[in-house]
Design brief:
The protein has helices spanning about 25-40, 65-75, 80-95, 100-105, 105-110, 155-160, 165-175, 210-220, 250-265, 300-315; strands at about 45-50, 55, 60-65, 115-120, 135, 140-145, 150-155, 185-190, 195-200, 230, 240-245, 275-280, 280-285, 285-290, 295-300. With about 325 residues, it is α+β, with helices and mostly antiparallel strands. The strands form 4 sheets. The chain has a 6-stranded antiparallel sheet with strand order 8-9-11-10-12-13. Strands 4, 5, 6 and 7 form a 4-stranded antiparallel sheet that branches. A 3-stranded antiparallel sheet has the order 1-2-3.
C-alpha cells in the first residue's frame, strides 16, 4: 500500500515546548503561527503576531487560544491545520467586516437568539463587559447573540442599543431553559461513585449551570434538594453535576475534581478546572491546584464541612 500518504507527525514530548501553548512543540507553534499570519494576509489583512493573539493594522485584536486548542485536539495532525485555520479566520473576518447583526436583524429575532453564557475572565475584556455578573471567582455571566456562523458576545455598548439589561437577561434565561439536552451520560464505578454529565455541540451547554435546578429535574426526574449539588464546567460543551443527598458526595467530589481538571486542559472554550458547590444559584469553589506540589487538592469552608458532617451522621444512601 505504498500509495497511502501519511500526514506530518506530531513532535514527541521530549521536543522543546512552546512557552504559551505547551501542547505544541516550538516547531509546531511556529508552523501554527506562520499559517495564521499567512491566512490573514490571504484575506487582505496584515497582522502582527504575538504569542497568544494577533493585531491588525486597525488595532483589532484576535485571540489564538481557541484555534490553537482546536488544531491540537485534531488527531489528523498538522496536515489539516491549514484548512482549519482558513475556515476559522474566514468566519472571524466576515463577522468583523460585514454588517453587524445588531443592525440587520429585527429586534424580536435578536431577543429570540439571546443566551446567557458563562465564561472565564481570561476570555473577556473587563473594560468592554462592565455589566458582566460574577458567577464564581474568575467566572462571569455575559449575554451572547447566537448567529448561524458565530456567537457574538455583547459588550456594554451593544447592550445600550438593545434596551434594558434586566429584561434582556430574563429573555436570555428563558431561551436557555428552552434548549434540549443533547446528550446525557452517567459516570459511575463499582464503589458507588456517581455523577451526571450533559454534553453537546451547543456553545451554551456548560452555561446551563445558570438553570441547574431545571436541568437536574429534567435529567434525573427529581429536584436538586435542600443541600444543592456539586457541579463542574470544564469547557463550553460539558456540564457535570451530582445532587447532594447522602455520603455518596464524598467519592463524587474527588472524581468530579479530577474530571474538571482533565477536561479543562487544551480544549477550545475552556471555562474552569475546578469543582463547585451549587446552592441556590451560588457557586463555591471546592478544588484548587496546589502550585508548590503541582497537584489537585480539595478545599472546603466551614459551611461545606458542616454539611459533610451532617451527611455522615445521617448515614449512607438515605433517599
Amino acid at each position: 500500500m505504498g500509495w497511502l500518504r501519511r500526514g506530518p507527525r506530531r513532535d514527541g514530548d521530549d521536543a522543546p515546548r512552546d512557552p504559551e501553548f505547551a501542547y505544541f512543540s516550538e516547531r509546531e507553534a511556529a508552523l501554527f503561527r506562520g499559517r495564521v499570519r499567512a491566512t490573514f494576509a490571504e484575506l487582505g489583512l496584515e497582522v502582527t503576531v504575538y504569542a497568544d493573539h494577533v493585531v491588525d493594522d486597525k488595532g483589532r485584536r484576535f485571540g489564538l487560544g481557541n484555534l490553537a486548542a482546536v488544531c491540537h485536539q485534531d488527531p489528523r495532525g498538522p496536515r489539516v491545520w491549514p484548512g482549519m485555520i482558513h475556515r476559522h479566520i474566514g468566519l472571524v473576518v466576515r463577522a468583523m467586516d460585514g454588517p453587524s447583526a445588531l443592525d440587520t436583524l429585527p429586534p424580536e429575532q435578536i431577543r429570540s437568539q439571546l443566551y446567557p453564557r458563562v465564561v472565564s475572565g481570561d476570555g473577556i475584556d473587563a473594560a468592554a463587559f462592565g455589566y458582566a455578573r460574577t458567577v464564581a471567582p474568575g467566572l462571569y455571566e455575559i449575554l451572547a447573540l447566537d448567529l448561524p456562523e458565530s456567537v457574538m458576545m455583547l459588550t456594554d455598548e451593544a447592550l445600550e442599543r438593545l434596551g434594558d439589561h434586566a429584561q434582556l437577561r430574563d429573555r436570555a434565561l428563558r431561551n436557555l431553559r428552552g434548549l434540549p439536552v443533547e446528550e446525557h451520560e452517567t459516570v459511575r464505578d463499582a464503589d458507588g461513585m456517581c455523577f451526571e454529565i450533559i454534553l453537546g455541540d451547543s456553545f451554551y451547554t456548560a452555561s446551563r449551570v445558570l438553570d441547574l435546578d431545571g436541568v437536574v429535574q429534567r435529567v434525573t426526574g427529581r429536584p436538586i434538594g435542600e443541600h444543592g449539588a456539586l457541579v463542574a464546567l470544564p469547557f463550553r460543551h460539558q456540564l457535570a453535576f451530582h445532587p447532594i443527598r447522602d455520603t455518596s458526595i464524598i467519592p463524587a467530589l474527588g472524581a468530579m475534581a479530577s474530571f474538571a481538571a482533565s477536561g479543562y486542559e487544551d480544549v477550545p472554550g475552556a471555562i474552569s478546572p475546578y469543582v463547585f458547590w451549587w446552592q441556590g444559584g451560588t457557586l463555591t469553589q471546592l478544588s484548587e491546584h496546589d502550585e508548590e506540589r503541582g497537584e489537585l487538592r480539595i478545599v472546603v469552608g466551614d459551611d461545606f464541612q458542616e454539611l459533610l458532617e451532617r451527611l455522615i451522621a445521617q448515614g449512607p444512601d438515605r433517599r
